[in-house]
Amino acid sequence: MFDVLVVGGGIVGSAVARECALEGWRVGVVGGGNLSGSATAAGMGHLVVMDDSPAQLALTAYSRSLWRGMAQRLPKTAEYDGCGTIWVAADEEELIEARAKCAVYEGMGIEARMLSSAELSEAEPHLRKRLAGGLIVPEDGVIYPPAAAQYFLGEAKRLGAEVVGLRAVSAAHGEVRLADGSVLTAERIVLAVGTDCTLLPSLPIQGRKGHLVITDRYPGVVRHQLVELGYLKSAHKLTEDSVAFNVQPRPTGQLMIGSSRQYGGTSAEIEPAMLRRMLDRTMEYMPGLGQLSGLRAWTGFRAATPDKLPLIGQAAGLSEDESLWLAVGFEGLGITNAPGAARLLVDGMKGRTGAIDATPYLAARMCRQVGVVYA
Amino acid sequence: MSAAIRTEVLVVGAGPAGIAAATAAAEGDCKVIVLDDNRKAGGQIWREGSVAVQEQEKDSKKRRALERLQRSGAELRTRRTVFAATAGFVDALQETVAGSVTERIEFEQLILATGARERWLPFPGWTLPGVFGAGGLQALVRSGFPVKGKRVVVAGTGPLLLAVAAHLASDGAFVSAIVEQAPLGKLMKFAVSLWRQPGKWIQGARYRASVGKTAYRTGCWVVEAIAADHGQELRAVRLTDGKRTWTEACDLLACGYHLVPNTEIAELLGCTFEGDAVRVDADQRTSIAHVFCVGEPTGIAGIDAALAEGEVAGLACAGKSRDSLSARVITERAFGNRLQRTFALRGELRSLAKADTIVCRCEDVRFADVRGHAGWSDIKLQTRCGMGPCQGRVCGPAIDFVLGCKPASVRQPLYPVPLQALCSSLTEMNEI
Ligand SMILES: Cc1cc2nc3c(=O)[nH]c(=O)nc-3n(C[C@H](O)[C@H](O)[C@H](O)COP(=O)(O)OP(=O)(O)OC[C@H]3O[C@@H](n4cnc5c(N)ncnc54)[C@H](O)[C@@H]3O)c2cc1C
Ligand SMILES: Cc1cc2nc3c(=O)[nH]c(=O)nc-3n(C[C@H](O)[C@H](O)[C@H](O)COP(=O)(O)OP(=O)(O)OC[C@H]3O[C@@H](n4cnc5c(N)ncnc54)[C@H](O)[C@@H]3O)c2cc1C
């Protein structure tokens, strides 16, 4: 009998397991230690404060502060680097957006500063000239997600958590049935299953495919994570396929290049047309990158909910089963939000008030929306 | 920019298999294009460069084959690396002095003749300067690397060792030992089985004769390459026969553990495999009807198999009869199977690497790091093994043998390419 069984050992499940273990609970992680096919193995690892909605802003800011707090303790393999983000404004319209964003961040006490066109060019010499300017958020960072997930899982294990390599075939009413037919029991079950809704088909989650490319090592070519502000226009439409300029400097000197967003389809195959659109966009901002050697391309799926917010807390609203808890639906922010989500979830289990309001992330909100969006 | 190039038959790889395939298809009146990433046609065995005495016969074979290819009307496009492929076209990167150019070539039928590369295994000291792949050193020597007067140990497994030793000796190297891990019993059986194929036997004997008094040690292998005191120069290798261990002084070590087929394009296209080899029917047709595969990717069997299979596929593409060749292909396949059995790697080779032995040179990953993971994908994600420029081509087969897990997914780009090659600027214009 476990206190908590976490199903799914991606970065979210691993962070939840660690947080539960820190409470001194008896914890099991089902499907732990195998990241192949997970979003955690595919994601970019940008630790970023985002302000799409107040709830998203609160969770990303909270989570980022937790990352910063543990930066010293992370193993070297996690490649944490507080390189900061620069939001690139191509034109006047985007510059206005950047200013608004800056004001929001300042209001939250998050360090952010506007860059003139010349300052932008000095900060990132390989960007094309005559961009309108930018917004720098110096305390954002990057991480290598698989190693960060392994760190969380390792911490959980050190605190006594058990890792079960098998998959769960059912999880309900305090019982998790494993692929080999055996059954584990627990007071609470946390579904941290990423995009996989088989254990709870009422999960309102759709996979949103993304392509990424990594280059050989070119230290110093890019210094901050660079994201176009046009991204805000394109990334959050729920229907159309979109691409955006999004380049990340890895501590290895490599560049990771994103990003695309597509709905529909479950094939992880590279789509050359999408890859091309994405890289064309990259070249518009950094023409010089065309000469760099691209080593590998891959895809991953983001777990998108209808309102773009994750589901954190009891499953009530999607399931009557009181033993079921959720930590899913993190779309393109699950790496950033993993530590905050884990903390909120455990606060919820303990019935204590957390650092931020947990209600916007509760599944209960889906009662109404589910009917509308997925009727 | 030119439009996408169209052809009836596209052959990837201009080694013996690709040359035979292209020649047969073109002689059968198909429009044929052959692509190869080297400067010249010939593949591994007919690589250009200085020619040793005992290679003369081989060279005339090569000359005849290339002349016939040229007469056939097949168009040879070298310095093209195929990095992406679909059921209807491939993208190839052409390196020119002015930079790289992407070429898209559309085909009706595709023949994969991508050959093989050497297998390498990790052992302490393998990263020292002076340690080479066996075929790798041979290729270097062909392009002018001097070995005259150098003491060389040739080690590993496979028929290639004798060929390499003979070649090095004829270039003036002193080959102090040929170290073959396969046991003598297996080799004797293999030699006896060759009575049906006197050509191969004679070639082997000739290689053997040309390295004169050099010791051919069977059932032995290298356990360590040793540097001069605190230095970085190779000084000697430690050898063992499993019971006894001794040291052999040398300046160079040429070490290769037989071959691994280059099957990435076939994997990308989704061809069915049988073990490590691409599955083909009697026409060399893969599980995809208009895609053929010939030579080493269908199972390592050497040049004669490559030539016969290539011709079969070329004739099949041209709709010509290939019945007269089927017996030859079967004989050569059987030879390939015997090769595989004879030179199967012994279990002891799995435990050569020490904790600090590098297994992935691109990313500096050590053996201790890759042990104890759930599988290849986990090894890769957690240690970066196989994430570098070679994308696991070198370390993948080694890890497969030592730890029993294979690199999982093959994707385009198959080789590192300038990002530009994946953008519209070039390909789109090509498409018009
Ligand atoms: C292209 C791309 C770029 C991204 N970039 C960023 C970024 O820059 N910053 C950021 O913060 N986020 C980013 N993300 C998002 C981030 O990667 C994900 O939100 C995050 O990894 C989700 O983690 P997870 O643990 O919820 O899910 P996953 O990592 O998918 O893990 C879920 C795990 O649960 C397992 N599982 C499912 N069902 C079962 C079962 N029945 N039994 C056992 N195990 C089961 C799965 O096998 C899987 O291993 C990106 C995502 C993509 C695709
Ligand atoms: C390093 C090495 C040395 C060898 N030395 C000898 C020897 O001395 N004696 C001997 O009897 N046998 C030798 N062999 C074995 C020999 O290669 C085979 O028996 C024979 O050459 C097989 O012919 P093939 O046409 O199947 O392959 P190969 O001769 O290997 O030809 C394949 C060709 O395809 C090209 N190619 C592969 N992928 C791509 C791509 N994506 N794009 C463009 N081009 C591509 C390769 O560069 C190569 O030129 C050697 C093998 C290796 C690997």
Brief characterization of the structure:
The complex is a heterodimer of chains A (375) and B (432). By secondary structure, chain A is an alpha/beta fold. Helices cover 31% and strands 28% of the residues of chain A.
Report the oligomer: heterodimer
Name the shape of chain B in a single word. globular
Helical residue percent band of chain B: 25-40%
Count all strands of chain B and give the number. 22
Mean pLDDT of chain B: 90
Terminal-residue CA separation of chain B:
9 Å
Main β-sheet description of chain A: 8 strands, mixed
Give a description of the structure:
- The complex is a heterodimer of chains A (375) and B (432).
- Chain A is an alpha/beta fold and 375 residues long.
- Chain A has three domains: 2-48 and 145-203 and 307-370, FAD/NAD(P)-binding domain, CATH 3.50.50; 85-138, no CATH class; 206-302, 2-Layer Sandwich (D-Amino Acid Oxidase, Chain A, domain 2), CATH 3.30.9.
- Chain A is built from ten helices and 18 strands.
- Chain A has helices spanning 11-22, 39-42, 54-70, 92-107, 117-123, 145-158, 230-235, 272-285, 334-350, 366-373, and strands spanning 2-7, 27-30, 46-47, 85-89, 113-116, 133-137, 141-142, 162-164, 168-172, 175-178, 183-191, 206-217, 225-228, 242-249, 254-263, 293-304, 311-314, 324-328.
- In chain A, strands 1, 2, 8, 9, 10, 11, 17 and 18 form an eight-stranded mixed beta sheet that branches. An eight-stranded mixed beta sheet of chain A has the order 5-6-4-13-14-15-12-16. Chain A has a two-stranded antiparallel ribbon with strand order 3-7.
- In chain A, α1 (11-22) runs parallel beside α9.
- The longest helix of chain A has 17 residues, at 54-70.
- Chain A is globular and about 60 Å long.
- The two termini of chain A are 38 Å apart.
- With 432 residues, chain B is an alpha/beta fold.
- Chain B has three domains: 5-117 and 261-320, FAD/NAD(P)-binding domain, CATH 3.50.50; 120-257, 3-Layer(bba) Sandwich (FAD/NAD(P)-binding domain); 353-432, no CATH class.
- Chain B is built from 13 helices and 22 strands.
- Chain B has helices spanning 16-27, 56-72, 134-142, 160-170, 184-193, 198-210, 264-269, 302-317, 326-342, 367-370, 376-383, 395-403, 424-431, and strands at residues 5-12, 32-35, 75-77, 80-85, 89-96, 99-112, 116-118, 131-132, 151-157, 174-180, 215-218, 221-227, 234-240, 245-249, 252-257, 259-261, 273-274, 277-278, 291-293, 358-360, 365-366, 417-418.
- In chain B, strands 1, 2, 3, 4, 5, 6 and 19 form a seven-stranded mixed beta sheet that branches. In chain B, strands 8-15-9-10-11 form a five-stranded parallel beta sheet.
- In chain B, α1 (16-27) runs parallel beside α8 (302-317), α4 (160-170) packs across α6 (198-210) and α5 runs antiparallel to α9 (326-342).
- Mean pLDDT of chain B is 90; it is low at 50-54 and 426-432.
- At the A-B interface, α6, β12, α8 and β16 of A face α11, β22 and α13 of B.
- β16 of chain A pairs antiparallel with β22 of chain B, so a sheet runs across the interface.
- Bound molecules: flavin-adenine dinucleotide (2 copies).
- One flavin-adenine dinucleotide is lined by residues 12-18, 35-38, 43-45, 80-82, 113-118, 135, 138-139, 160, 163, 259, 262, 265, 295-296, 302-303, 306 of chain B.
